[in-house]
């Protein structure tokens, strides 16, 4: 099952867990109230998984590819890692399914505090359009993930501040309704 927690304020290596002291764990219900959805799937059968197909059909995830993030596989690795860790939002959902390896998604809560979500093999997450977030590898420096989209992929991140965007406005309205 996914593990999530509030982060400390340390500015050292982002690949470290950065757990707040005292520990402040975050459960799936709290993530759902932020619009973050989570599934645990069998990554060994992703090519023929009826549960993945059901989710894709229900949520209209029509496009997918697979990305491997490690020094040997990702062109411009250092530049991409820095870009992924820059706080940003998207105009569409961000959907990631971890097929191998591990990493962290960090999302902002209602009070603008960071929550770290530890992702490993079999974890699938959907971040809502308009949520500020970032991604980093953990100390293993490797993840293989399926990227899913509704329609054609849009890779455009909007770095913070982007509060003027309609996706951000809609997300804040969602938070207000679910408070």
Automatic annotation (TrEMBL):
Cofactor: binding comment: Binds either 1 Fe or Ni cation per monomer. Iron-binding promotes an acireductone dioxygenase reaction producing 2-keto-4-methylthiobutyrate, while nickel-binding promotes an acireductone dioxygenase reaction producing 3-(methylsulfanyl)propanoate.
EC number: 1.13.11.53, 1.13.11.54
Pathway(s) where this gene product acts: Amino-acid biosynthesis; L-methionine biosynthesis via salvage pathway; L-methionine from S-methyl-5-thio-alpha-D-ribose 1-phosphate: step 5/6
Annotated residues for binding of Ni(2+): 88, 90, 94, 133
Keywords associated with the record: Amino-acid biosynthesis, Cell membrane, Cytoplasm, Dioxygenase, Iron, Membrane, Metal-binding, Methionine biosynthesis, Nickel, Nucleus, Oxidoreductase
Entry's localization field: Cell membrane; Cytoplasm; Nucleus
Family: Belongs to the acireductone dioxygenase (ARD) family.
Protein name per Swiss-Prot or TrEMBL: Acireductone dioxygenase
């Amino acid at each position: 099952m996914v593990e999530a927690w509030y982060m400390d304020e340390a500015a050292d290596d982002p690949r470290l867990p950065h757990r707040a002291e005292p520990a402040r764990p975050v459960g799936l219900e709290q993530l759902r109230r932020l619009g973050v959805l989570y599934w645990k799937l069998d990554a060994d059968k992703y090519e023929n998984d009826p549960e993945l197909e059901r989710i894709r059909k229900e949520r209209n995830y029509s496009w997918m590819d697979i990305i491997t993030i490690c020094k040997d596989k990702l062109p411009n690795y250092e530049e991409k890692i820095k870009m992924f860790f820059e706080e940003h939002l998207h105009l569409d959902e961000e959907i990631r399914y971890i097929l191998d390896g591990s990493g962290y998604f960090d999302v902002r809560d209602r009070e603008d505090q960071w929550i770290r979500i530890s992702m490993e093999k079999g974890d699938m997450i959907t971040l809502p359009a308009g949520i500020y977030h970032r991604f980093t590898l953990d100390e293993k420096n490797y993840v293989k993930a399926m990227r899913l989209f509704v329609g054609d992929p849009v890779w455009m991140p909007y770095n913070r501040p982007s509060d003027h965007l309609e996706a951000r406005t809609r997300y804040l309205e969602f938070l207000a309704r679910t408070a």
